[in-house]
Amino acid sequence: APTHAERADRNQRTELSSTKGAVWDDLKQVQVWTGDVELIRGSTRLAGERLEFRQDPDGYQYGSLVGAAGKPANYRTKRDGLPELFVGQADRIEFDGKADTIILVGNAVLRRTGMDGGVLDEIRGARIVYNNQLETYAVEGGQPSAGSDGRVRATLSPRGATGPATQRQTTTPSAPTSAPGGTPPEKGRP
Amino acid sequence: MRRGVWRDRLQNLAFLGALLAAAAWTGWLALREPRVRTGADAQPIASGVPDYIIENLTMTRLSTSGMLSTQFVAPRLTHYPAEDRAVVESPRVVSIGKQAASTQIASKTGEVLRGGEEIVLLGDVAIQRDLPAAPGARAPDPQRLSTQRLHLFPDTEIMRTSEPVSITQGPRVALAREGMQIDGGQRHIEFTGPTRMTVEASR
């Protein structure tokens, strides 16, 4: 069965809310929401401190969500046809409704969990691009910095495991190559 | 004899026209520059007592290029000199924006304060904003807002309320619980406090 975020989400209404209001720009037709911002669309939920949101005439939605100081932006969605969730967090989360991608930027973490929250897989990196249409993700390392060696880390459960990962397999890519932005992107399929 | 009659009639018409113009001009001046009659010969007008009433009022403001900029229409305006305010019934405001939004506003009643510097619209205030299209794009859906009180500041193109306000634009419906400010010059709407929006799925 296709394993990606709930397809039904696309045909759901979107609920957007904030505690400190929003500014709607007449000309650019961009909305900036601030203060405990929450966007819910079907099983997909995004939460952060400040969201730039736009919808094109064809109804595709685009946004860039940042967290508050010390509190990352959050993303969660249910996997289509499976009792599993994708849960992500990062300094900034960007979504593109037309390309059907979620991009986690800065201290990015993306986890596949059971409905009870038990972690099955986990990916960490500087930037994670999850393509819902192609059902793939690409994760890039970053520059070594205080508290982070800039490497990509993935903890994957054995195939077929649905319960919490008992036996963990850690894949640490080889030393960062010369490609700009640190280690080459690791590609994978959930 | 016949030519003389026509000449008299024309002169009367011209005189009547001038009289009407003067009356309208006086009304406009009184509105813009209200004067409370003071001094030894003027009776102090008590609060709540009008000094003039204008029926079927249309005030049109033109831009520097002579185009219609703002129009204020009301079936009746009553001016109270003691408070320096004018109360209007069923006011309609239309403002034509060049690059900005063109706006139409209606409400049950309104007050014109400080000679038109501020206009307060009260009761079922309905606003429609027709937004200009960005270059190369089609015009966005019009915005329809509703609230119970709206403060207009014509000189600065600002409208403001601290009452709850709802807005509908195409598939989007939003509600801001603590009001908003529309800045025509800056071309944006700022919703204040807890705000919620629903976007119906369009695909």
TrEMBL record, chain B:
Gene3D superfamilies: Lipopolysaccharide (LPS) transport protein A like domain
Gene: lptC
UniProt KW Calcium keyword: no
PANTHER family: LIPOPOLYSACCHARIDE EXPORT SYSTEM PROTEIN LPTC (PTHR37481)
This protein's name: LPS export ABC transporter periplasmic protein LptC
UniProtKB keywords: Cell inner membrane, Cell membrane, Membrane, Transmembrane, Transmembrane helix
Organism: Piscinibacterium candidicorallinum
